[in-house]
Predict the structure.
Amino acid sequence: MSTTPTYGFPKAERLRGGATDALFREGKSGFSFPYRFVWKCRPMTENDEAQASVLVVVPKRNIKRAVGRNLLKRRTREAYRLSKHSLVEVAREKGLRVELGLIYSTKEVLDYRVVSRGVESVLAKISRGL
């Protein structure tokens, strides 16, 4: 494997389907401003395409306008895409697959720097917990 990180965000890294139900039912949770997060890890299988996958949620209860929700989801995905490498590397070393749900939990639209710091903090907490 190459040591240079890839900065893509392919479809395999997006959590979808029945995996979301299991994540919220069985996962561990935590908080790091502005996110509440739920995560679960399991051993990597040969059917898994990605080491980590993520689900981004911005509730309509907190951000009323779709424009704001979409903006925050884009910012969150971008911050994850740029800082996922530490988590992926730790999961690869331990042979685990990590499923992560990021739930935006404040009522204001924050700028990218704050969102990025929050995502980095979440990924650091999960990396320590593996």
About this structure: The two ends are 22 Å apart (CA to CA). Residues 14-129 form a domain with the Ribosomal Protein S5; domain 2 fold (CATH 3.30.230.10). The chain has one domain: 14-129.
